[in-house]
Every structure is written in structure tokens, then in C-alpha cells.
Amino acid sequence: MIKRVRSWLNQEDSQQAHRISPDNIPHHVAIIMDGNGRWAKRRGMPRIVGHQNGMKAVKRAAIAADDLGIKILTMYAFSTENWKRPKDEVDFLMKLPQEFLAIELEELIQKNVQVRMMGHPEDLPQHTRDAMEEAVARTASNTGLVLNFALNYGSRKEITESIRALGKDIREGTLLPEDITEEMVGERLLSGDLPDPDLLIRTSGELRLSNFMLWQLAYSELWFTDIYWPEFTKEHLIEAVAEYQHRTRRYGGLS
Ligand code: FPP
């Protein structure tokens, strides 16, 4: 109990310090978790140690997001381009969801978290797929934080597939090209019914999107930090949210 109160007080303190308003918390935050390899290299350790510590930062970020009242957290865990990495590293990355869920699934269930996966399961090793499918199934009716793992995800591929699906409807005569709307393209993306991210965070000082949610990020606020992903803490999330709350979102209009 004391621990709970203390953690609540710390949370209150840091929210106060950064003047986070509870009324303007981003609903959906997406994160490009970059810098695992460099974090490890800087310490003279193999890259996979960086990924292992990156996994710990995933848990910290999920707890912090939930504490702050963020409703959806999308984490870029593996891209359709990451298969180009050395086999050992890919194999290691493919074991992480399983390892993470073996340790955390029960707590995620208890905390009412809904786990989702956004990506192409068909190319994943069976053990990775099984772990994700189990987590998704066991948390499907949860109503708390949506923890959405982008796994074997690539935005150009998802946009191409959305267009292909619309093309099929046209060929079958159920759709006219002139009737295609932005909503129709959006609904057929892997993010499905999730609203677009309000805030995108990328760690490690790289300033690019790396084929991540290119359609959905059209009007998201972007926040970049030099810290490497394994160093990411609740304080960084608070900093990002504080900065977000200072932005004026105009969606191409006037404020
Ligand atoms: C990019 O950093 C990071 C990745 C390709 C992997 C991200 C995965 C995790 C953080 C763990 C995922 C955990 C779960 C539970 C799915 P990089 O290693 O390419 O960084 P570098 O540019 O410094 O080499």
C-alpha cells in the first residue's frame, strides 16, 4: 500500500513538474523503439543484449502509458525490412515476444490490457505466432490499455494490400473507382479500427519514419529523443506528452 501511494506520489510529482494536463493526454501513442544495438555497442556488448534490455523498456513504457491514461500504445517491434538482418539477430528478435509474454501475460491480463498484433503473422516462426495468438485471444475482451505490437509490419505493404483489396471489389463489380474514399483505404490497413496515433515517439536520434504507419501518421505530432530505447523510462514519456500538450494541432486548417 505504502509502495502504491509512493509510486502515485512520484507520478503526481513528475506530472506536476512537466505540467501535464489530464484533459489532453494523447489517446494513441506509437513508438519506434530504436537504438538497441547502439546501446549495447556503447557498453561493449552484443546487439542482442540491447534487444533484451529493449524488451524491459517495453514493459516500462506500457505501465507508464497506462498510468498516464494513454489508451493505445503501438510499438514497432519488427519491420518487414528487419528480415535483412543477420539470422542470429532475427532469431533472437523472434524469441522476444514469446519470452515477454511468458513473463508478463498474467500481469497484462490482471491489468485489463488488451494485446493486439499489427503485421503479417504468416511469415513469423510458429512459436512467435503461437505466443502472440495466445496473448491476443486471452486478452481480447479486456477493456484497458490496448498494447499493439507492430510485428513483421511494413506500411508500404499494408497500403499496397489495401489498394489490392479495393481493386478486387472493383473487378467483382461491387465498387466503382470514383467511389473510393480515404475511409475505405484506412479501414483496410492493418491498424483496422484503431484511431490514428496522436503522438509518435522515436528514440535514438534518428529522424525518419522507417516505413511505419505512413498513412496513419499524416497528422500525428512527432517527438524525437536522442536516448536509446533501452534507456526509455516513464520520465521520457511524460516529457513527450508535455511537449505534445504544447503543440497546436491544426490538421491543415487555422487555429
Ligand atoms: C531497432 O533498434 C529495434 C528493433 C529492430 C527491435 C525492437 C524490439 C524490441 C525493443 C523488443 C521487442 C519486444 C517485444 C516484447 C516484442 P536497433 O537495434 O536497430 O538499433 P540500432 O540502430 O542502434 O542498431
UniProtKB/TrEMBL annotation:
Substrate binds at residues 35-39, 47, 51, 79-81, 83, 85, 202, 208-210. Its EC number is 2.5.1.-. Homodimer. Residues 1-21 are annotated as: Disordered. It is an enzyme of class 2 (transferase). One of its GO terms (molecular function) is transferase activity. This is Isoprenyl transferase. Catalyzes the condensation of isopentenyl diphosphate (IPP) with allylic pyrophosphates generating different type of terpenoids. Its cofactor is Mg(2+). PROSITE patterns: UPP_SYNTHASE. Residues 8-18 have a biased composition (Polar residues). InterPro entries: UPP_synth-like, UPP_synth-like_CS, UPP_synth-like_sf.
